[in-house]
Amino acid sequence: MNHPDPLRALDRPVVLVGLMGVGKTTVGRRLAARLNRPFIDADEEIEAAAGRPVAEIFADFGEAAFRDGERRVIARLLESPSPMVLALGGGAFVQDEVRALVKARAISIWLRADLDTLMSRVSRRPGVRPLLNDDDPRAVMARLMEARAPAYGQADIVVDSDAGSHDVTARLVLEALSDWLEGARP
After folding, report:
1. Which segments in the chain show pLDDT lower than 70?
2. Which residues are annotated as a binding site?
3. CATH assignment of the domain containing 31
4. What's the domain count of the chain?
5. Which residues are known binding-site members for Mg(2+)?
């Protein structure tokens, strides 16, 4: 018996969550192209709404103000009927309200990677990650991994992204998403 491709029936947003440096934006762009869906980076939308970079928002207003704006932007994006691919900033899915919105309106995928992989990736763009502007960014990342894992673990799907290139990860995400959709069928 030949079943239709479950990805063709995808009728809601796919939301990528995980720590900074895991590849949400890069993998998300590839995933969106393969699904023929628009790609949206939540941090870029926040910057557009605020008229300034995320690092400046953190510096000028603090993390709490940033998280409030982030939550509002994500809520607006998820109200769209378009089944987009949406990459969230690393701390977004940790917020209970954001996680509930994503659970209600989208399929969430945790892109997971080990500490060495994450540090290798974030070190390529120094100064861009406000939470890592510290004397020991590796220790900060390790703490974030431990603190955020319980929230990320509530995602619908988990895909390890340290096994190879972003193209490999995008393929793994497509396979996992297809399997998940197949399992969600009545």
Report:
1. 1-4, 123-135, 163, 184-186
2. 21-26, 43, 67, 90, 129, 148
3. 3.40.50.300
4. 1
5. 25
Annotated binding site for ATP: 21-26, 129
Q: DSSP string of 66-119?
A: HHHHHHHHHHHHHHSSS--EEEPPTTTTTSHHHHHHHHHHSEEEEEE--HHHHH
- Give the count of beta carbons closer than 10 Å to the beta carbon of residue 126: 10
Domain boundaries, position 153: 17-178
Specify the pTM. Answer: 0.89
Q: Which residues are annotated as a binding site for substrate?
A: 43, 67, 90, 148
The answer to whether residue 80 sits within a structural domain is yes
Confidence at residue 125, expressed as pLDDT on a 0 to 100 scale? 57
User: Does the residue 1 lie in any domain?
Assistant: no
